[in-house]
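Chain X:
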Amino acid sequence: MQDGAGRMGCEMGPSALRTAGLVEVLSSLGHAVEDMGAVQAIPVRRVVHGNLALKALPEISAWTSAIAEAAYAASENAMPIFLGGDHSISAGTVSGVARRAAETGRPLFVLWLDAHPDFHTLDTTASGNLHGVPLAYASGQPGFSGYFPDLPAAVDPKRICTMGLRSVDPAERNALNQVGVTVHDMRAIDEHGIAPLLRAFLARVSDEDGLLHVSLDVDFLDPSIAPAVGTTVPGGATFREAHLVMEMLSDSGLVSSLDLVELNPFLDERGRTATLMVDLTASLMGRRIMDRPTRSHSGSF
């Protein structure tokens, strides 16, 4: 889906990830993989909101319902990997796995790897692009009732860690501070290093016997290594920082679900971003440095 983004192309993301060999790579690492295909949209109902800037609200609301049900079903005795699509899919994926976590009696934590916190509400977004609201919705922030599906279980904002931020609107900044989301922007990463910050968050997940949903947006990465995104923000995570995050997540054994979002193949260079996203997923799923293949690219990482 691409209804939540400001430009077209994200709907081709899942096909690009498949073409880049995601299923084959996961299988080669010893995982049993089932490709469940595309989530099917449900009928759109009329939804009208006072913020006239909102774009595709009825469509995003309908997609959120469908994706939440699919995420809930896929998370039974398996680790689902959700292929996007723009980041609005996470309104459904996070709410779906949060419902599953609540039923198992374990808290759900969320690691949001993104240049943006996506913490706008329907009232505060000025662009009206609804890929900017999923984390606010899934954590139960006000203003979504009657427009988005009711949440069976909201994620506690204090169990959310955003990492890699470098484009945050004032309304989002205020909301993040008020509700207690852990925020590690790129300055914090530059000052402290990415490993200590992530290690502290993972310790919290482990201490509470939590499940961990990871949402990886292409624009978490620096556009010099991942150009295939419609919201490029300079100064993102480097190739090694990104792989280190994935390797640490793998070592932790805590990850229970994963989003791969905002890949726009129309903006890619010979598939390099799709290939990088597959390689990062492989690192999360157990590939080690000595097992990594050599690749040729027109540019260099």
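Chain Y:
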Amino acid sequence: MAIITLIGNNGAKAGYRFTYRGALTECRDCKLKTVCFNLDIGTEYEVDEVRDVQHECNLHEGGVRVVTLKTVPLHLAIPSKIAEGSVLTYSENRVQSGCKKIGCLHYSICHPEGLKQGNKYKILEVLDDLECALDESLKEVILE
């Protein structure tokens, strides 16, 4: 199902990606706010289609455009022993070792944005083994 929202003209290009950070207080009186703020906080989206409809906006110079979005699949590093299941209930303690090596090549998939504690995610694909600085046996998976 396509997600329809409004984004600034500068980002209204097919393939443009962004992570939704939430509603802005400056927009609380706008009549279009329910269309702009219909996304999930922390989720990464990609513009799929730009429509011809434009609206004026007090925040975006040049206004906003109607676009359709798709969610960007989430990549996550998880212990190899749980990578073979088809559904994963996300628990930060279960899938992460507590590693704080921010400079690690895999830090962003060991600590991804957008996953919510207790939510169920479908494992779409199991990718390669990951080299872990803590010698843990990890696999990269793509979640839906």
